[in-house]
Amino acid sequence: MSTRRPAKINKVTLRFTDDELLIIHTRAAQAGVTVAGYIQLLALDRELETITIPTPDPSKALLFKELRIQGNNLNQIARALNRASLARQSVGNYRQQLIDIHQELKKLCHDC
After folding, report:
1. Rg (Cα) of the chain, in Å, rounded?
2. Rounded to whole angstroms, how far apart are CA atoms 109 and 89?
3. pLDDT tens digits along 8-24
4. Fewer CB within 10 Å: C terminus or N terminus of the chain?
5. What is the 3-state secondary structure (H, E, C) of 36-65?
6. pLDDT digits (tens, 9 = 90+) for 81-104
């Protein structure tokens, strides 16, 4: 008699707005499960009663959205700095600007 669980081979694709996905990510993290696990628990009506899931503060949701956008900008700056360093080009004051942005982000995240 086999005690193995059936393999999960079926895939479902869902589409969410940025705000909806942010809420799902936040709630999954608060529940201590992955996003896929969170959606499975809800879809299969499994027990989530023991977990209190607060509604995210809209102002924090906007802050996290902006942080995500700025994170992308920081990655682009970092790539440009790395390319300039490899090509031995002057990076001007970009390095200081990157440090300043990083410090501001740390302050914002500290207040969350």
Report:
1. 21
2. 33
3. 888 888 899 988 899 88
4. N
5. HHHHHHHHCCCCCCCCCCCCCCHHHHHHHH
6. 788 776 666 666 667 777 787 787
Q: Write a three-state SS string for the chain.
A: CCCCCCCCCCCCCCCCCHHHHHHHHHHHHHHCCCHHHHHHHHHCCCCCCCCCCCCCCHHHHHHHHHHHHHHHHHHHHHHHHHHHHHCCCCCCCHHHHHHHHHHHHHHHHHCC
> Are 112 and 60 a contacting pair, CB within 8 Å?
yes
Place of tokens 């995500």: 68
Torsion of CA 17, 109, 32, 14, to 10 degrees: 10
Dihedral of the alpha carbons of 61, 59, 110, 33, in degrees to the nearest 10: -30
Looking at residue 104, its pLDDT comes to: 79
